[in-house]
Write a structure and sequence with these properties.
The chain is α/β, with parallel strands linked by helices. The protein folds into three domains: 3-165, Rossmann fold; 174-353, P-loop containing nucleotide triphosphate hydrolases (Rossmann fold, 3-Layer(aba) Sandwich); 359-443, GMP Synthetase, Chain A, domain 3 (2-Layer Sandwich), CATH 3.30.300.20. The chain has helices spanning 14-22, 66-81, 97-108, 151-161, 191-199, 246-260, 276-287, 308-319, 339-353, 359-372, 410-424, and strands spanning 3-7, 40-46, 49-55, 84-90, 113-118, 140-142, 179-184, 217-223, 226-232, 263-269, 291-297, 328-330, 385-392, 397-402, 432-436, 442-443. The protein has a six-stranded mixed sheet with strand order 2-3-1-4-5-6, sandwiched between helices. The radius of gyration is 24 Å and the shape is globular. 39% of the residues are buried. InterPro entries: G_ENGA, GTP-bd, GTPase_Der, KH_dom-like, KH_dom-like_a/b, P-loop_NTPase, Small_GTP-bd. Belongs to the TRAFAC class TrmE-Era-EngA-EngB-Septin-like GTPase superfamily. EngA (Der) GTPase family. One of its GO terms (biological process) is ribosome biogenesis. GTP 2 binds at residues 185-192, 232-236, 297-300.
């Protein structure tokens, strides 16, 4: 899957374009230059195209210190990782010397480069585009992130130039029977060592320096009669000058691996504990509806007593409370400790990920649950749940028909999720609940994740 990066100086409207292309307000948008300080990545699957889109902080080539320096480095990282670059210019401010410097840098990357003149909100504004042709680009795309103007022409050109962006609707069904496992986690958590332990041979470069897995690596193997594919998160083709940005940079590889896997193994360094990036990766796994096992690696390096394991498990539960349904395993890749158990657990989670509940069993439990705990009413009217059905697997997804979907609050949504887990298991997999009225209209639902506690 190709990565497309939006790059440009501060306050040219990159985040507005990002939100328009993604189709929801995900990037923070503000009038003050530099509001987007980090990089924001999202899967886009619209208009017959599928790709990863990255928003970046403003590119300031001359930045020497402070947040501007970080924003510049983030933008350089985006350029190095992306396969396609969208250079965003501002019609209102006109062509500046800063734009010229950025353009020369982007040209030197030798990546496919498209120039977007943003804030072109009407035909009369196109008269202002002449000066931008001074850059020497053959084509300019006059666009408006605010109103969506001109983006259709841009997407058509991208599809024409990059046919691999085009996808058929049924491609996402992933009909393969082979189970794909992705090793996910921050650099130096021991993912490659764990991959070698799983595969039983030294196939991947292992080094104490963070980010030594240079290229994406897939390995197919058999375990207990099952065909498995192991994805070792990579894409860390970093340079020495950006060594401090590895944590941010590696997120791109993690997201790509999540898109391709069935089960994500979130590898946590036992010597460091849970860090912010671990939580971010876990959030992406849940958002994309993949199975999840938390793997605490380097357990051999921890001084232990009879309470150490329980204490650390509780700390992980507290810090990652939105995935309390995910199993936690403590392993040592170096000593091959509990590695076979890890694969067994991944297979168990995959079974839950693909589980289908019979409609009769679901409604029998639904009747028991609603007798004990009715959903909240609204304006004195009792809320009734008539019946439920499971509509899909990978992950398990359920539709419940009710007389008032808007009365189902987050508390009851979470309660019903927990009840389904209590009766049917679903260890290690997110479950999606949809609430509909009798006519089948969707209301009050969030198919991407279960509510946080």
């Amino acid at each position: 899957m190709k990565l497309i990066a939006l790059v440009g100086k501060p306050n040219v409207g990159k985040s507005t374009l990002f939100n328009r292309l993604v189709g929801r307000r995900q990037a923070i948008v503000g009038a003050e230059p530099g509001v987007t300080r980090d990089r924001n990545i999202s899967l886009v699957q619209k208009k017959g195209l599928r790709y990863l889109l990255m928003d970046t902080g403003g590119f300031e080539p001359e930045a020497e210190e402070g947040i501007e320096t970080k924003m510049r480095e983030q933008s350089r990282l985006a350029v190095e990782e992306a396969e396609i670059i969208l250079f965003v210019l501002d019609r209102q401010s006109g062509l500046t010397e800063q734009d010229r410097e950025i353009y020369q840098y982007l040209r030197s990357s030798q990546k496919p480069l498209y120039l977007l003149v943003n804030k072109t909100d009407g035909d009369s504004h196109e008269a202002d585009l002449g000066e931008f042709y001074e850059l020497g680009a053959a084509d300019l795309f006059a666009v408006s992130g605010e109103h969506g103007r001109g983006l259709g022409d841009l997407l058509e050109r991208l599809a024409e130039d990059h046919p691999d962006l085009i996808f058929e609707e049924d491609e996402d069904a992933r009909p393969e029977e082979i189970m794909s496992i992705a090793l996910l986690g921050r650099p130096n958590a021991g993912k490659s060592s764990l991959a070698n332990a799983i595969l039983g041979e030294n196939r991947l470069i292992v080094h104490h320096e963070a980010g030594t897995t240079r290229d994406p690596v897939d390995q197919e193997f058999r375990f207990q009669g099952n065909n498995l594919r192991l994805i070792d998160t990579a894409g860390l083709k970093r340079k020495a000058r950006v060594s401090q940005q590895v944590d941010h940079y590696s997120m791109v590889g993690s997201i790509r691996s999540i898109e391709r896997c069935d089960i994500g193994l979130l590898v946590i360094d036992a010597t460091a504990g849970v860090v912010e990036q671990d939580a971010r990766i876990a959030g992406y796994i849940v958002e994309r509806g993949r199975g999840l096992v938390v793997v605490v690696n380097k357990w051999d390096l921890i001084e232990k007593d009879s309470k150490t394991l329980k204490k650390m498990e509780q700390e992980i539960r507290d810090q990652l409370n939105f995935i309390d349904w995910a199993p936690i395993l403590f392993v040592s890749a170096l000593n091959n400790q509990r590695v076979p158990k890890l694969l067994e657990k991944a297979l168990e989670v995959y079974e839950q990920y693909c589980k289908r509940v019979k409609t009769a069993d679901l409604n029998r439990i639904l009747e028991e649950v609603t007798l004990r705990h009715n959903p909240p009413g609204k304006r004195g009217r009792r809320t009734k749940i008539y019946y439920g059905t499971q509509v899909s697997i990978r992950p398990p997804s359920f539709v419940f028909h009710t007389n008032d979907p808007t009365s189902i609050n987050q508390s009851y949504h979470r309660f019903m999720s927990n009840q389904l887990r209590q009766y049917f298991g679903f260890e290690g997999t997110p479950i999606h609940l949809f609430w509909r009225d009798r006519s089948g209209n969707k209301k009050n639902e969030d198919p991407k994740s279960e509510p946080k506690k």
